[in-house]
Amino acid sequence: MSGLSARERSLGCLFGGAIGDAFGYTVEFSDIQSIKERFGESGLQEPVPFEGRYRISDDTQMTLLTADGLLTGETRFCCRGIASSPADYAFPKYRMWAKLQGFKVPGVVHESWLFSDPYMYARRSPGNTCIMDLCQNGSAARPGEPRNDSKGCGGLMRAAPAGIAAHRFLDPDTKAVEWGEETAAATHGHPLGWMTAAMMAGIVNRIFCGDGLEESVDGSLKACDARYGGSHHMSELSGIVGKALSLAGSEKDDLECMAELGYGWVAEETLAMALFACLRHQDDIKGCLRCSVNVTGDSDSIGSVAGNILGALLGMDAVGKAFDIGRIECFDLIETTAEDLASGCPTDGRVLTDDGWEDRYVRCVNPKASGNRPRQTHRVLPRGIIEQLIKRPAMGVP
Known about the structure:
This protein is mostly helical. It is 59% helix and 0% strand. It has one domain (6-389): Orthogonal Bundle (ADP-ribosylglycohydrolase fold), CATH 1.10.4080. The chain is built from 19 helices and no strands.
């Protein structure tokens, strides 16, 4: 799989996560006995459509909004030469997402081109930590300045875009970990809530840089150790990830191993369970997702994280052959976002060269839903400055 393009991996990552989310959403709050009673002794074997579509949850919605924040920040850097943390661009979009679901969100919220599709803000059991934080605060929290002590998986399950985007930059290991940490810490204050997201982003990044699955896990662990070494929280994260790797090589069956790793409601358990499923079923994304969702626990988040990882590893073809992805809600948004993450901000060294990109990440509107607008010229940084931060002309600089 080392010959796959960034585009193929990015599409595989986001569609893999979305189908894993949809697969698990049906049974998210069911225990394994209830799942077997409903679907048979083997459990749920295929995603269940609702009115002909595979229904995504807050996992996929927030993943796409995280990508929007990353790409908005990248565009701002190209146009103005300065940008803040990706969390500062994603957080106001998360707040608009909550407001559109009917939650009371005071103050300024920011639009997103993604909200052109009502499925992007359909209320699908959003996490309590996220909603409470978004309703009570106007800006993103920082890792060293927590507002709560939550280590729920709501920061982890949206971290994959940080790993995709980072592979285009100089020092991608550091960027992936940093961006995964920041976007998760925006709402989740416990160190394991954002360290685990940092590790997830690191794994995705290493896959995009050409490593195999075990190498990617090892590479991300090293990058996280370099950033968090000495923390007992990092030792705890390393321990449960090591346990997942050990169980994947054991003779125990999937269900027994998953139960040993936990329920997936907290971030470190979610990542460990997703990694076990990926390691045990490295060449079979359907088998991986069946393993992920047939558990007592947070089935859709485990499925989403596992789908992101194995989808990135195997690519879009593998995901498309295993599932009818055309039935996934927000298909067009997922496809465009994945392609944008893979390519980066398009410039000719002087101005943005793509009107659709300008619509999405400057005007925050969907060009396919908003008609034609006059072109606005946005200057970008000189090539030499961009190349100090980008390791190759992935942003369109010739």
